[in-house]
Design brief:
The protein has 625 residues and is an alpha+beta fold. 37% of the residues lie in helices and 17% in strands. One of its GO terms (biological process) is defense response to oomycetes.
């Protein structure tokens, strides 16, 4: 309400309270309310006041019209202290019927300002384009309720369009909300509003889109074979792009509040468009990411738990809906709000997906029309499961969903899954997926590791590594391949070896260990590296009986460590633990850097300092520890 008072002070040139008038009209608000009737910024009922986005849109429209010297249309207005106030928004809101067709024309004609003029279509043009609203051209009744039906159509110039039919009395606020947003948004995966038409008591919004079908219809049609994995993946990616634009990159931040397959429209190439902004909400750039509503729209199963429990809306509510959309698109299940059944009994849709994923029976839940066995499907399921977590704070942002930050994604998945299944199974899932499609880690049976190290004999022990959390052994596989095996206790500093794994599957350098696989036995985790290790640098430096390290070899080791640190820093990786104990040498004294730390407080200069200490220790043979 204060904004409304300020606007009238600016327009009238009067103060909010003017004692020069008779006592009944001292207050500017009272005078304005009497002059303009109801439904404005000054309405006593907050629900009847327009949104800031609507106010801004109307003010911009008024300004644009006033700047046109040759503009002849004079909108209706009321006198306030002798000044005329434009009435675009008020005249439209106060008359909710199309009896005020003129008001609707003014609203649609001005809402986009000078740069986005909506075309007014004759009703007869709409009838012809849709073949008299034939059932053949009907796409669906839109899911959220604010639209009676959608039709595909073709204008006389051959342009394909989508036409949404609204009842102007029932959902006027919703389609008005949609129009006020879409005239300001521009994205390849959002519908482009072309114009409007008014016929009787109905309003038609015309979109520039040759629609083929909704995603919902193609998923439900089990005879449809168009949705292979590549197309489904493309659709999911397109929706992610649209939501990322709405949440972060548009002219203002928007919570869509209606992400579901019925609102994903596809053209003949199955390129998606996100539609239905009737229940969308705007957030100012500096506004908190959470707002509270008295009522919300949406389809059960896609609404985030915090929304229907507390009516609290945030961008994370869209993330939840997006997660359900992912799982529905992959599984082909169209009733995510219903209980499903398996050998464990009835469970929610999310629990059903979780159980099958953890039991390694993902193939049982993937839509049989997806005839491909791809690890990319598993990764997208992972993102979907991250998005449907109960706590909004645990869900990723749309940017994280879109970029697919593998390290964060898998670590978070591990944390969630540990609450649902045993730790061993969670670790196996972590190692199986961390490398993505291009780097699959081999799972070794513990018996294989036991044989390779001769039952972890003292003769095969290299050293206790720098962090003192694990021990390194040299070993040889049955095929003769030399390996180094690091034995970790899974309960101590597990984040360190998970961080190392996440890095090594991405990095490639001759002086870095190449991770071959893993093994899990009891509480212990074993990382197997493809490297015939001979000894660690610290053992050779500080063993006074060792005479193998002449100056040439020491210089070669120092230079190699310098090269690998340059490589890491170029890839924004800080090692954090450069010491002789974590430099492994083969029989030719070629070094491999290992044991990565993870500390956000470190900088590249910390590596430089420790490298300097390493040089001094290597030259002098003196152990500073």
């Amino acid at each position: 309400m204060p904004l409304g008072v300020v606007l009238f002070e600016v327009l009238s040139g009067k103060q909010a309270v003017d004692s020069s008038l008779d006592e009944e009209h001292w207050g500017l608000v009272n005078w304005a309310q009497e002059s303009i009737r109801e439904d404005s910024c000054l309405h006593n009922n907050p629900k009847q006041r327009p949104t800031i986005a609507e106010v801004v849109a109307c003010l911009e429209s008024v300004l644009a019209l006033q700047e046109k010297a040759n503009y002849t249309l004079h909108p209706p207005g009321m006198k306030i202290f002798g000044n005329k106030v434009p009435m675009f928004l008020s005249s439209f809101i106060e008359d909710k019927s199309v009896g005020s067709k003129r008001s609707l024309d003014i609203y649609f004609g001005t809402i986009g300002g000078e740069n986005r003029i909506l075309r007014r279509f004759e009703f007869q043009t709409i009838i012809v384009a849709t073949e008299n609203f034939s059932e053949t051209n009907k796409i669906s009744a839109w899911g959220d309720g604010e639209i009676e039906a959608m039709y595909k159509g073709r204008l006389q110039n051959g342009q394909g369009v989508l036409i949404a039919r609204h009842d102007s009395n029932s959902y006027y606020q919703e389609y008005k909300n949609e129009v006020s947003l879409l005239v300001q948004l521009e994205h390849e995966n959002l519908l482009h509003l072309l114009g409007y038409s008014i016929g009787g008591t109905q309003v038609f919004l015309v979109y520039e889109f040759a629609v083929y079908a909704s995603l919902d219809r193609l998923i439900k049609d089990h005879e449809c074979t168009l949705l292979d994995w590549n197309k489904r993946n493309k659709i999911i990616l397109g929706v992610a792009r649209a939501l990322l634009y709405l949440h972060q990159h548009g002219p203002f931040r928007i919570i869509h509040c209606g992400v579901n397959p019925e609102n994903i429209l596809l053209d003949e190439s199955l390129d998606p468009k996100l539609s239905s902004f009737g229940f969308a909400r705007c957030l100012a750039i500096s506004e908190a990411d959470c707002i509270k509503e008295k009522s919300v729209g949406g389809i059960p199963g896609y609404i985030a738990p915090e929304v229907y429990q507390t009516y609290r809306l945030s961008t994370k509510a869209d993330v939840y809906s997006f997660g359900v959309l992912i799982l529905v698109t992959i599984t082909g299940c169209t009733v995510p709000n219903h209980y499903l059944y398996n050998s464990s009994g009835h469970m929610t849709f999310e629990e059903y997906v979780w159980t099958n994923w953890l039991d390694e029976t993902s193939s049982d839940i993937i839509d049989p029309r997806i005839d491909v066995d791809s690890s990319s499907i598993t990764r997208v399921i992972h993102i979907g499961l991250l998005c449907v977590q109960a706590d909004p704070a645990d869900r990723p942002t749309m940017e994280e969903c879109f970029t697919g930050s593998e390290i964060k994604e898998n670590v978070t998945l591990l944390k969630i899954a540990e609450e649902k299944v045993g730790r061993k199974r969670c670790l196996e899932l972590y190692f199986e997926t961390i490398g993505g499609e291009h780097k699959t880690l081999r799972r070794f049976e513990f018996g294989t590791i036991n044989v390779a190290t001769e039952k972890f004999s003292e003769n095969n022990k290299i050293s206790r590594w720098g962090s003192h959390d694990f021990i390194v052994y040299k070993g040889r596989l049955q095929n003769g391949q030399g390996v180094s095996i690091a034995r970790h206790n899974s309960g101590s500093r597990s984040q360190d070896y998970k961080n190392e794994v996440a890095l090594l599957v991405k990095l490639e350098h001759e002086n870095l260990l190449k991770l071959l696989g893993y093994s899990i036995e009891g509480t212990q985790v074993f990382l197997i590296d493809e490297f015939a290790v001979c000894e660690s640098l610290d053992h050779m430096l500080f063993d006074r009986g060792c005479t193998l390290l002449d100056w040439n070899k020491r210089e070669k080791i120092i230079l190699a460590v310098a090269r690998v640190l340059v490589y890491l820093h170029q890839h924004d990786v800080i090692h954090g633990n450069v010491t002789p104990g974590i430099i492994l040498l083969d029989e030719s004294f070629d070094p491999k850097l290992s044991d990565f730390r993870h500390d956000n407080q470190l900088s590249t200069k910390d590596d430089v300092y420790k490298f300097g200490v390493l040089i001094l220790e290597t030259m002098t043979g003196y152990n500073i520890h």
